[in-house]
Predict the 3D structure of the following.
Amino acid sequence: MGLRQGHDEADLEAAILRQLEAFILELGRGFAFVERQKRMVIDGDDFYLDLLFYHRRLRRLVAIELKLGRFKAAHKGQMELYLKWLDKHERQPGEEAPIGLILCAESSREQVELLQMHKDGITVAEYWTELPPKAELEQKLHAALLEARERLARRGVLLGELDDE
C-alpha cells in the first residue's frame, strides 16, 4: 500500500481509501461505500468506526475496523458495541443485522476460535502492507484454504451449499 515505516491507523485508512475501488472489488461484488470514521455517540462519548459499507445482495451494513497490531479479545467487544449501535440507529426496514470485519496486522487464531466470533457476525482477517515472496504467499493461501475447509467440515456445512448462494 506504499505505507512508510511506523505508520498509524490513520495512514492505513488513508491508504485503503486511496485504493478503495480495488479494495471493494477484493471484498466482492455488491459493496457500496457508506462512510469513513462513522461517528456514534453512546452515553455522551464519541466512538468512530473506521469504515462502513453496505452490501446490496446481503442487504446489510458491513462495519470494518482497522487495527495495527495483533488481534486482541477487546477488539471483539468494541465491534459488538458498534454493531449493536448500527442495528439500533442505522438499520433500515428490510435489512439484515449488520456484520463486522476486523482487519489486523496479525490474527490470533486461538483467541478468535475461542471467542466464537462468527456467531456474533464478526470476522477477523489479516492485512499485509507488502506481499511476501510468491512461495510464502502460495503456502499461506493453501493453508488458509485447508483451514477453511476443515472449519466448514466441523460445522457440517457442505461446499456445494456455498456455491448456491
Observations:
- The radius of gyration is 17 Å.
- The CA atoms of residues 42 and 85 lie 8 Å apart.
